[in-house]
Amino acid sequence: MIYNLIQIPFRIALLPAPPDKVMLGFTIVDIACDVIFLVDMYIKYNHLIIIDKNGDEVVSLALIRSNYVHGQPFKIEACASLPLYYVGNYQVMTLCRLPRLLRSSQLSKYLRSFHTFVQEQTASAAVTEGLEFVKLFLTLVLASHLAAMGLFLISHAEHGDQHGDGASDVTDDVPSWYSHDFVIEQFHGSIGATYLRAFYWGLGLSSFDYMDIHVSKAGETLWFCVVALSGVVFIGVIIGQVCTAIFNANKVEMQLQNFAFYAKMKKLPGFMVRRAKLFFQFQLDCNKGMDAHEIFRDLPQCLRLELFKDLYANLLAPIPIFSMLSPAQLNAVAERLHSKLYLPGDDIIMEGDVGNALYIMKQGLGEKHLRTFQLIVAPVYEGSSFGEVAFFLAKRHSHGVRAVKCCEVLCLTKADWTSAWSSEVSLNFKVKMAMAVEKEDQLMERITTALKGNFGVTGQASIKLTSMLGVKKRASLSDKHTIAGRRDSVPNYFEYIREVSRSGARKGPLLSQFAPTPRATIWHPGPPQQPSWMPHSLFRNVWDVIMLAVTTYYVTMVPFRASFVEFPQPAPYWIVIWFAAEYVLDVLSVADFVLRFQVFYVFAKGEMQTLPAVLRRHYRVHGPLISDIVALVPVEIFAIGLFSHTNSWKLVSLCRLNRILRLVHLPRLTHSLEHVLSRRKWFMANRTAFEYMMTFVAPFFIVCHWIACLWFYVSFASRSHGDTPSWLVTMGYLPLNMTMASTDDIPLGFSESTKFTSMNVYLASLYYAVSSLSSQSFGDVFSRNAVETWLTLGIILFSITFYGVLVGMLAEMMQDKLHPRASFEQHMVDVSTFFNYRLLPFDFFIQTSRFSRLQWQNHMGRTEDDFLSVLSTTIREDIAMFVKQNVVKNLRFLLECEEVFVRALVTKLRTEQFIHADVIYQFGDVGRTLYFVDVGSVSLVSATTGVQTRNHNEFFGGVALFEDVGRTVTAIANVECTMFLLYHDDFDKLVDRFPEYFDRCYKQWCVRDEDPIQKMRGSSAGFNHLKLTPDGVVTGSSDHLQKSPILLVAPAPPAATIPAPLMHIPVHTRPTPPSSFGPVKTQLTTAAVTGPNSRQRIHPKLIILVILIAIHPVVDRCISQELKLVLEALQLLYIGFSVPFCFGLLYDPLGTATTVSTLSTYLTYGLDLVEVAMAFIIRSPMDMKFLSDTDRRNSAFMNKLIKLSSWDKKRVIETVHVVLDWVALVPFHFFWLANPSQDVGQRWRTMA
User: Fold this and answer.
1) Which residues pair with 1063 in a beta bridge?
2) For residue 678, which of 1176, 73, 273, 1044 has the smallest C-alpha distance?
3) Strands (DSSP E) along 883-966, which ranges?
4) Smallest Cα–Cα separation from 358: which of 385, 323, 398?
5) Within-domain flag for 1022
6) ω into residue 995 within 30 of 0, thus cis?
7) What does the pLDDT look like over 575-618, one tens digit per residue?
8) Which residues form a coiled coil (predicted)?
C-alpha cells in the first residue's frame, strides 16, 4: 500500500515517460504487488478466522466466505485489483494503476493491527508511545508527498512545461513556481530537485511556510488553502496525542503536587511530608500508580478471572492455608485480592485490632512484633501469609506486623472472602481453616512466651536464646541509631500527643523522642550509612547544582564554539585558557560519573540501596551509563592523531561535541535545584514561573540554539562547494566570492560596522531557528540551495514532533494549574443557572456562593479524600492524627484508649466547613451526626434554655449517635467554622470493631444540646441572651444577630421570660418558599424601621440602593440571560472595534469627516449607550459597593444589605474598578466635537 501510494502519484506527476529500463523495473514490482494483493484476498476468503459479535471464533469455511464476500473490505479490494493492464504508452500504463490506490483507505487499519501486534509482543509503554509517533510521522510524510504531487500536477496543468528553453504548452505570461526556483535552476530542472522543492513545500505548508515558493494561479491557490487547513488539523492531532501521553505519564507527579499543596495548607510535619513523597516514589516503582481493579473493572467475569489468575494464583498455591482449595477456588480468591503499599515502619497489623482481613506478603519484608514489650517475634518473608489467626478465629491480633522494607501486600477482606462462597461452602471452609490455624496460634503463643522470658521481658528464662541469636539483651545507643536509621523509623505521633497533653503548660517533649527503639533485633544492621550520599542531602544538593551549571555549559557553549568561533593561527592565549578551563569541567564530569556509578545511594526495590555492587548494577540497567561513557571519551585526542587538519583547534572543538550527551542528566539536576529552592519562602509564590521556565522556555531555547548552530555551520561549510549561493550571501553577510580560507578569523562580538561577526550571524541563525521551531517564519531567512533544503526538511520534521511535545507539556501544566479553577467557575455558573431557573431565594444563593468561594480559597475546590486517597493506610492515619490532634487532646478519655482505636476514630472523622450564619441543623431535623468544633464557634438556640455557645475543641449533637430522635435546638455558625463530623454509619462500624469502647463513648458524647458542657473555653460571642416569647418571637440584644440572616425553627412554648428587647424577629415553624429576596429581608426591614433604633437618619445612598434593589427583580424578569450575553458581546465589540477605528481616524488622508467615519462615530455613540446600560442591567445592584463604613454601622438594614453584597473583597480594588468603569463612560468627545475654533477634520481627529 505504501509503495503504491508513493510511486503512482510520483510517476503521474514527475515521471510520465520514464526510460525503458526504469519502466521495466516499475512493471515487475507492480505485478509483484498485484500478486501479493490476490494472495491476501485468497487468505481472507478461505483461511482467516473471524470473531463474531459475541466474541467467539468462527471456523466454518462457509461462514468465513459469506462474511468476507458481503463485507465492505471485499468490495474495495476487488475494485482495487481490477486487471487493468495496458502495454504501450507509459503514461497510460501508469494511469491504469490508479485503482490500486483504493486499498490505501485500509492503511490505518493495518497500522493499528501492527501496533497491536507489537504491543502484545513487547508490553512496553515506551515502545507503544514510540509507535504512536512513528504512525504520525508516516502519515505526515505520505500527506506531504501527496500534497507535493498535487501541487506539481495543478501547476503543470495551469502553466504548462516551462523548463529548459522556456517553451510552454500553455501560453501564460505568469511564470510557474518551478520555472524560476533557484534550487531547481541550479540542477537544470532535474526531477530530483523538482521533487525535493515540491516535497519541501508540501511538508512546510503543514505547519511551516517559509514563503519562498509562490503560487499565482487559482488552482494553485485553492490547493494551497486545502493543504494548509489539513496541516492545521494534523498538527492539532499531534498535540492532542502528545498531551494524552504526557498526562498519562505524569499522573503520579500530579498527585504529589496536590499532596504538597495539602501539606502546606495543613502545615504537616516534615517527616510526614518526606514519607508521603517516599510513598509516591515507591508507588511509581511498584505499579506506576495503577490499580488492576480500577483499570480492568469493565472486563467480563471470565476475563477478570483469567487476569487475576495470572497475577496471583501462583503466589497463593504454595501457602499452606490455601492448599485445600481447588484451582477454581484459588482463582476466585485471587480475583478478590487488593494490593496495598507500605513504607518501612508502617504498621500493617496493629496489636489488639480486629482481624477483618487476611494478608499475603507479595514484595518486601516485614516483622511480627509485640508493641507493648518492644520485642520482635518473627520475620515475614515474601510469599508468606499473616493475620490468618484473627481472621478465621474471629479474635484480636495478639501481635502486630510492621514493614521493614517497602512492601506490597495483598489484602483479602472478610466480606470478599464471604462473597466468594455459598453459605454451606463458607461454613465448611471456616471449620477447616479454624482447625488449621488454631495449632499455629497455640504454637505462636508458646514461642512468644518463651521469647518474653528469654529476653527478660517477663518471667525467668529457661534457655538463653540471646546467646544463640547473637544479640544483646539491650541494644546500645549506636545500635539503636543504626537500626532506626536503616528501618526509617517513624515517630509515634499518638504517644507524642498523649505526653504533650499530660505535660500541660510545662515544656513538652520533642517528637524525635518517640521513635520506636526495639530491645533486640533479628535483622543484621548492615554497613553504616553515610548521610552525605543520601538523596537530597546537603552535599548531594550542592553537587547537583554544580553539575547543573557544568551541563548547561556543555549544551550551550560547546556547540556555539564549534560553529561560530574560528581560531586564528597562531592561537592566542585566551583560547588556551578557555580549553584548559573546559578540561577542568571534564574532571568534574568524571568525578560525577564515579560518584553516581558506585557511591551515591539510590532508592530501588523498596529500600535505600547502599552496596556498591547494587549501585553499579542499578546504574547499568536504569541509569545513563552508555551516554555518560560516550560523553567522557576524549575523541579529540584520537582525531588529532588520525586526521590532519589545517586548524587543529577547530578540529578539537568539533570533536568535543560528544559532551552534549551529558544533557540526559538535566531533568534530575533541575529537580534537585527545585528541591533546594523549595526551602525558600519566596519560591512557593514563584513555583509556577519556575516550572514554566524549566518545562517550556529552557528546552525551547536549547533546541533553538542547536538548530542555529547547525544551520550556520552547514550553510557556511556547504557554500564552499561550487558557486551555489547561501542565505549568508543573500542576507549580505558574505560576498559570493569569499572562500573558507579567507574567513579564518571571525570577530566574536556584535558590530554595526562589520556585519559578519559571530554574534551577528548567531543572532540571525537564532532568529531562523525560533521562527522554524514555532512555525512563525516571515520568509526573510530560508534555504537557497539543495543542502540547505535538505537540512530544512529535517528541521521541519523534528520541529513538528518537538513543538508538539513542548505544547503538550505546557498544556498539561496549564491543565493541572487551571483545571481546578475552571471547574470551580463552571460550578458557580451551574449554581447560578439553577437558582435562576428554579427562582430560589436570593439570600440562599448568596450563602451557597460564599461557601463555594470558601472551599476554593481553602482547598482549591478539593476534598480531603481527593488529596489523601492514594496514600497508604498508615500515612493517612498519621496525617489524620496530626490534623485532628485537638480532638484527641481535649477528649481526655481518648488518651487512655488503645492507639488502634484512636487511629480508627480519627480516620472516621470527616472535615466540613461552614460559613458565617450557616444553619447547621434546625429544631426537629433528623440527622445522626456528632460535630467537633475545630475552628470557630457555634450558637445552639433552644426554646427552653436560650442560647449556648460551643467554641473550638468542643462538641455538640452527640445524642444523635445513640438515639434516633429529632434535634432539640437550632445550631448556627457564628463565624466561618471548620468541624469534624462523625456519622452514625461510621460510628457503627467503629463500635463493631471495638465494642468495649461503646460505653465510654456513650458516657462522654451522649450530652444533650440543651445541657451545658462542663468546661467551656472562651467567651460566648454570638446569639447570647436570646429568649423565645409565647408569640414565637426570639428576643435578645446581640449585635451579631442584626448582621446574620438567621431562620429559627421551634415550637411556640407556653411561656418564657422576656427581657427588654432591642429587636423583634418572628420565628416561623416551616417557611414557605419565599419570593425574590426571601422572608428574611422583609423581617429585617420591618425590624430596622419599627424597632427602637429606627429613628436614626436614613442616608440618601441607602434610598438609592433600596430603589435599585426594588427594580432588580423587574430587570431580571424583563431581560433574559441570553440577552445579557448578547449585550456583553456588544460590549466586547465596542472595545475591539470602536477604539482602534477611532485611532485610524487620526490618520485620515482627506482631513475631513467622511461618511464612513460619521457612521462609525454614530455606532460608537450607540455602543456607549450600551455600555451605560450594561452598568445598570448586567451588573447586579447587589454588587455595587459605594456605602461607607459609617453607613454600615448606622443601620441594621444597611448591614444586612452589605452582607448580601459580598463584602469579602478588598475595598481599594473595588473602588478603583468602579471609578475606572465610570470614567470610561464620560463622553469627552462631545466637548471637542462642538469646538468651533477647529475645522471639521481637526475636530474629528481630536474627538477620536
Assistant:
1) 1036
2) 273
3) 910-914, 919-921, 929-935, 938-942, 946-950, 955-956
4) 385
5) no
6) no
7) 889 999 999 999 999 999 999 998 999 888 777 888 899 999 99
8) none
